[in-house]
Amino acid sequence: MSGHGLEAVETKAAPAPVGPYNQAVKAGGMVFCSGQIPLDPSTGVMVGDGDVEAETHQVLSNLEAVLRAAGCTPQQVVRTTVFLLDLADFAKVNAIYAELFGQGVAPARACVQVAALPKGAKVEIDCIALSD
What we know:
By secondary structure, this protein is of the alpha+beta class. It has one domain: CATH 3.30.1330.40. Helix content is 23%, strand content 27%. It has a six-stranded mixed beta sheet, with helices on one face. Helix 1 packs parallel to helix 2.
């Protein structure tokens, strides 16, 4: 979609969209990042073999790549949503999440357990950031 001050964000450093959406959209001084799952951007293959910690590292790497493509840093993120297949994984995911979002003012966040995620992922994270 173009016009109305909307700008699509695209980077090969994160997985390509597999549907009618963008990796992120810049609008009104904000960046709205689509949810990322643990896909290797160069191969399109899931990483981690079901290890939620390995999955979380890849998810955050993908999300950071999209933020950087939009001209943002993780410190500009104001809101995240963490989707977990199992809330029992919360402590493991939270420790890795804190490595990226734990400095300065941590973003507001929701964390929910879901029935399923795309491609059998155990974690998906999206975010909203302020744009320069």
